[in-house]
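Case study: ATP-binding protein.
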Amino acid sequence: MATEQFTVDNHIIQHLISSQAGSVEKAILELVMNSIDAGASGIDIRIDAKGKTLFVSDDGRGWKDPEEIRATFGTFGFDHGDNNQRTYGKFGLGRGQLWNYCRATYRTNGFALDVDIRERGLEYDIREADHRPGCLIEGEFYEPLDPRDIQTVARTLKEWLEYAGIPIYFNGEAISTDPAEQSWDQTTEEAYFKFRDQSSLLIYNQGIFVGRVSAYEFGIGGIVVSRKPLSLNMARNDVLRAQCKVWPKIRDCLRTAAGLKAKTRRERLDDYSRCMLIRDWIAGDIPYTEICDQAVLVDGRGRARKLSAVTGFNRVAIADKRGSMVADKLLASKMALVLAPEIAEWFGVKDGQELVNAINERIKEELGPLSYVNSRAKNEARRQLWKLERHWRGLQGVEWESLRAEQNFTHEIIGDKDLTKRQKAQLTAVKALNDGVAGEIASIRRKVRYSRALRAGRSESATAWTDGASYIAVDLDAVADACKGVEGFTRMTKILLHEYMHDSSSADDTHTHSQAFYEDFHDLITHPEWRERAIVDCAIRQYGKALARYELKVPRWVATEGRVMDDSEETGVAA
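Here is what the predicted structure looks like once written out:
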């Protein structure tokens, strides 16, 4: 019997080189990590303005002789040894990424190494050269970078190397800092932490960027810079959490910080905190009493509500997007509790029925140990859970598509000749509101014109809709409701502003409300020049005049409110 040893064919090495090459900046990042592993105290990176050449220079150890070059440069996957001083290099593979983009010459001590895998494959030259300390890499790009590519490289490297700890320059600009000299929200033996209200958590392994995870995962966003080495995958873009001994302590710090944020910011609880609280409760890590007073659910309108705030509903569904017209109608009519799509991710469910099952199951699990315990705290916990159970026990989960299919999206424009005298007077008032809203938007945004015609309509699914350019239609029932008092006029003002935020049709359920949509709405309605009361007062005056013109009785509240302004104070004419 003969014993043999496995070997690796050259084409596997070529595959390893090509498969790692995600981008030029990733290839440069590998060079930087190798320089730091070689003891460099500073690194200079340059790409010429035409994008043809790359220079990376350091003052590290370099390679001292041909034997070391063959052992650690010419061999892929070499043994680093048990006592190596490397911070980042573990596999001996990363240097090959550059060769997908450049033919390269490495100048180190008294040698030069020439690599060109497109022309020569895996052959490389070792030749004598002028002595220089450290290592200088001169690359000639196979395909020159355009100015936008260079900007992308610069911007990305600045993010990835921001906390590298040694001076690093890109085209003369410093792009790194020492994390020990920065201000942090928390510092432990394992890591530096900076907590922010942002969608991602950026993770750095001893100052070098690893990747980003969603803030939903831990309930908090920001930056983590490890002070001890993290266990990473071969691509060095993810933490091997099951193997890493440092990560559990970092994870616990993140969860603690997220929990503290959730408790101290109840009035402004964000989605990341809601997600964390829900996941912790479903997992049994926290009792219901910790979240019973917090608005952890988000409905299809984007409004937050408590888990117990489901009174009056008998069906629950998870919508496919926020801001759905159908969701708005169903919530307003109490026909169904429609929740935002992220609720499915937070609870780990697929649809409304799975959500109902998950919540009821969690209630049973938590109630079990409380059944035979008498204490003030336990009695309060039991009371809160019984209250929640009453709300969710009778709810039926339904699929969103089937619920949506039940709804009618027919909209109809009604001509003025088909309106009664009272409806005409009411429409006159809403037209005045529309003119006022358009005028205020034009004034605040310094636009010459920002007006759309106001039309009466009928709809089974919408209070108002627009084509995004020429008109806004309002359901006649909503018009009548608006004319019942000052509060109704004020509410209609917001409805019209909402429609003006749409720059495309909102006449069916395919339109969405993005974050930018809500930000625009908020910016306008809170702007110091936004004169909502003036818009409403003017509309009330016009309503009173229209009622009198059609010989209809003018309500006392209209007569009273209508005298608030003089004619000279009227608003509502779009600039």
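For the exam, be able to explain this: Confidence is low (pLDDT under 50) at residues 563-575.
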